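stuck on this:

***
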Amino acid sequence: MKKLIPIFLLCGWFICFGAVPARSCNPDINPPLVACDSDVYVDVATGPVTFNSDLVLAAASDDCTPANLLDFRLELDMTSSTPPTDTSLTVSAADIGEHYVVLWALDQSGNSNKCWSTIYVQDCTGDPGPLCLPGQNLTITTGQTVFLYDDSFLEPIPQCWPNNWTGLLTLDNGAPVPYLELTSADAG
């Protein structure tokens, strides 16, 4: 029995402190992990819109700083070598179009990381939403397969989209799908 106790203590020490890597926050040298939403739409029909990181942030975490204590900064259409000071951005009718938003996440030790999101600034005043092209004809040769997506049927003009909008298509009263796959067998 006397020989088992020192071996157990040695094994217990090794398992707890030797074999399992401990995270080191002193010093904290790892930057936060940050992920952005890919496409975000902002409507400036009623005037300028001010937004913060919540608009583009998908997820963030850090090995030492709790997520709720991470600091977020924003840049529009540029990337600095160091985090900016802005915690919000304002867009207006002068900014209509496609822009890139750079979101920086900073931990309590000053480590930083960034991600990018595409933001579409639009003025949807009086806009009924997506406009479809009038009747279209499609020619499919024998053995050919054609994939059609929602933008295959939309007017080639700026459209007003709500955030997280997904176009779905139906064929012959079928279930809505993100795309249609047609072959010559579908002619008619």
